[in-house]
């Protein structure tokens, strides 16, 4: 009976998480990020207890994002775009560190260096530059294929159309399109004044603003871009995360 109850709850959690993922990536969430993370943690703990020998890549929760929306051209990423995992306490961090040692097959006595960076909560975007020129921009989508939002990305003034410093022949710049809190509040006040539905939070406002079929709507919103890494690249630009800066 206990096993049956566990499997039933696991099925329930899997469907619930998939439902809320779909709402999240459509910029219409019905629960908070904290509530969603709690569902994911419960599902992960229960799945491990039911399937203790399951490999991480077999876990359906390892699949990120959602399929591209209709109306957008699809873009296949040169290198898969992964999502970030939440660490809510020291135990979560220790689990991550242990996994890194196992992944690169290092003894626990060997010291590793880590880099801590600010996390901007926005919509992940992948910018392709060829010979320094911005040629394509896409959302993360399902991690393999995203939505072509090149025209929309071009409306964000702080994203360069042409790289000025030394650059590889081809490089994917990855980061987050986001909206500042004060700009979000200002926009929501305007929507409310005009009798329109407000956005739930700045992340959804940024996502909804970028994923517009009409670039002029995106241009009317105050969006920013925070670059945090690179994807596919024609030549190695740095040997560490810090060196990428």
Account of the 3D structure:
37% of the residues lie in helices and 16% in strands. It contains eight helices and six strands, in the order ααβαβββαβαααβα. It has helices at 2-25, 33-50, 90-103, 150-153, 181-193, 202-210, 215-219, 241-244, and strands spanning 74-76, 123-130, 133-139, 145-147, 170-178, 224-233. Strand 2 and strand 3 (133-139) form a beta hairpin. Helix 1 packs antiparallel against helix 2 (33-50). The radius of gyration is 20 Å and the shape is globular.
Question: Which labels suit this protein?
Answer:
alpha+beta; two-stranded antiparallel sheet; 8 helices; 245 residues; globular; four-stranded antiparallel beta sheet; 6 strands
């Amino acid at each position: 009976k206990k096993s049956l109850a566990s499997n039933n709850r696991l099925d329930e959690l899997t469907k619930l998480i998939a439902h809320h993922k779909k709402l999240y990536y459509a910029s219409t969430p019905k629960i908070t990020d904290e509530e969603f993370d709690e569902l994911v943690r419960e599902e992960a703990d229960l799945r491990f207890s039911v399937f203790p020998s399951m490999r991480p890549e077999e876990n359906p929760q390892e699949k990120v994002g959602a399929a591209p929306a209709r109306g957008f051209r699809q873009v296949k990423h040169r290198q898969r775009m992964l999502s970030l995992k939440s660490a809510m306490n020291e135990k979560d961090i220790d689990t991550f560190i242990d996994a890194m040692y196992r992944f690169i097959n290092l003894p626990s006595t060997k010291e590793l260096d880590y880099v801590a960076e600010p996390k901007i909560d926005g919509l992940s975007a992948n910018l392709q530059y060829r010979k320094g020129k911005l040629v394509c921009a896409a959302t993360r989508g399902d991690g393999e294929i995203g939505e072509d939002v090149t025209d929309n990305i071009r409306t964000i003034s702080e994203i360069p159309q042409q790289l000025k410093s030394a650059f590889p022949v081809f490089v994917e710049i990855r980061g987050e399109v986001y909206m500042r809190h004060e700009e979000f509040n200002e926009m929501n006040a305007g929507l409310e004044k005009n009798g329109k539905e407000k956005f739930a939070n700045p992340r959804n406002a940024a996502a909804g603003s970028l994923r517009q079929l009409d670039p002029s709507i995106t241009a009317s919103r105050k969006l920013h871009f925070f670059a945090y890494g690179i994807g596919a690249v024609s030549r190695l630009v740095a040997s560490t995360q810090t060196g990428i800066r």
